[in-house]
Design a protein that fits this description.
By secondary structure, this protein is α/β, with parallel strands linked by helices. The chain has a single domain, classed as 3-Layer(aba) Sandwich (Rossmann fold). 44% of the residues lie in helices and 15% in strands. It has a seven-stranded parallel beta sheet with strand order 3-2-1-4-5-6-7, sandwiched between helices. β1, α1 and β2 form a beta-alpha-beta unit. The longest helix is centred in the middle third of the chain and has 26 residues. The mean pLDDT is 95.
């Protein structure tokens, strides 16, 4: 394999995660494509990267499981021997519901995957990248959501709350590791045309919300990936603790 920097993208087998993996590989990163259950989708992303001359591996792991997180990072260590970047992209939404209709089980799963999983992955990345541990530094990009500031009433307030937690975590971690060579930023995507809407029971949500977006259309996964790659790059060396809206003005 080449000697390029190594990036782990959680939830890298589809949607925004897949677009980030492909864009990163084109920019010279060696990419670990994480997936929870869909190995075929992850292999397809790896295949596309390799076909274009890049280097990638598929790494199984559910970020809602501590054992899986440990195994995922161990696999990256074994394959590449280093880590230079993490994109905390893995996340879920639930079916549209009011808060008084949501079960405790739904809430626990939402926060275990969207919040605890992201924090735990960041912790493992810090252990590998921080100069405090002998690392050479690196970058973490957390994928938040415009829902963090909009609240998503009558749709999924729990998801919005989980992304609000990611915003706060981003700011705090950025300040915590700023002297250790690690930059931490976040992207807040708006309405992006990916499969996540169908998983929440609203497959046409991106199209239906287009008239409410100032630019009158949903965004693409590739547009979000471009912003992620900027924050990972040396062009953003003085950017940390930032939360960048990629939302079409919404």
């Amino acid at each position: 394999m080449s000697a390029g920097p190594v990036l782990l993208v959680t939830g890298g087998s589809r949607g925004i995660g897949a677009a980030v993996c492909v864009a990163a590989a084109k920019a010279g990163w060696r990419v670990a494509v994480n997936y929870a259950t869909n190995r075929d989708a992850a292999d397809a992303v790896v295949g596309a990267i390799e076909a274009a001359g890049g280097s990638a591996i598929a790494v199984q792991g559910d970020v809602g499981s501590e054992a899986d997180i440990q195994a995922m990072f161990a696999a990256v260590d074994a394959a590449f021997g280093r880590l230079d970047g993490l994109v905390n992209n893995a996340g879920i939404v639930g079916p549209t519901a009011r808060i008084d209709e949501m079960s405790v089980e739904r809430l626990e799963r939402m926060f275990r995957i969207n919040v605890t999983g992201s924090i735990r992955c960041a912790a493992e990345a810090v252990r590998r990248m921080s100069t405090r541990y002998g690392g050479k530094g690196g970058a973490i990009v957390n994928i938040s959501s415009a829902a963090a500031v909009l609240g998503s009433p009558a749709q999924y307030v729990d998801y919005a709350a989980s992304k609000g937690a990611i915003d706060t975590f981003t700011i705090g971690l950025a300040r915590e590791v700023a002297t250790e060579g690690i930059r931490v930023n976040a992207i807040r995507p708006g309405v992006i045309d990916t499969e996540i809407h169908a998983s929440g029971g609203l497959p046409d949500r991106a199209r239906d919300l287009a008239p409410t977006i100032p630019v009158q259309r949903p965004g693409t996964a590739e547009e979000v990936a471009d912003a992620v790659l900027y924050l990972l790059s040396d062009k953003a060396t003085y950017v940390t603790g930032a939360i960048l809206n990629v939302s079409g003005g919404r």
